[in-house]
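WP5 quarterly update. Target: V-type proton ATPase subunit. Source organism: Caenorhabditis angaria. Length: 86 aa.
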Amino acid sequence: MGIVIPLVSVSAFWAIIGFGGPWLVPKGPNRGIVQLMIVMTAVCCWMFWIMVYLHQLNPLIGPQINVKTIRWISQQWGNSKDVVSN
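Structure tokens (predicted):
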């Protein structure tokens, strides 16, 4: 449930901007270009947000520490008996 609320709310926000924004552009010679810019901005911002959000849900690469560093940290912190005796 924690994933659905931000996903729906942010997607709805950018959908409103993308579909409703072009209707607010006043008539003029560059109206089509301005409408296209609004729609493309909404699409690009939504895609950037969704990629970052989904990437944070399931990171592909986690932190990696080699065994020598773990043993050194364990020795420095004083609990080396647990780690050294595999």
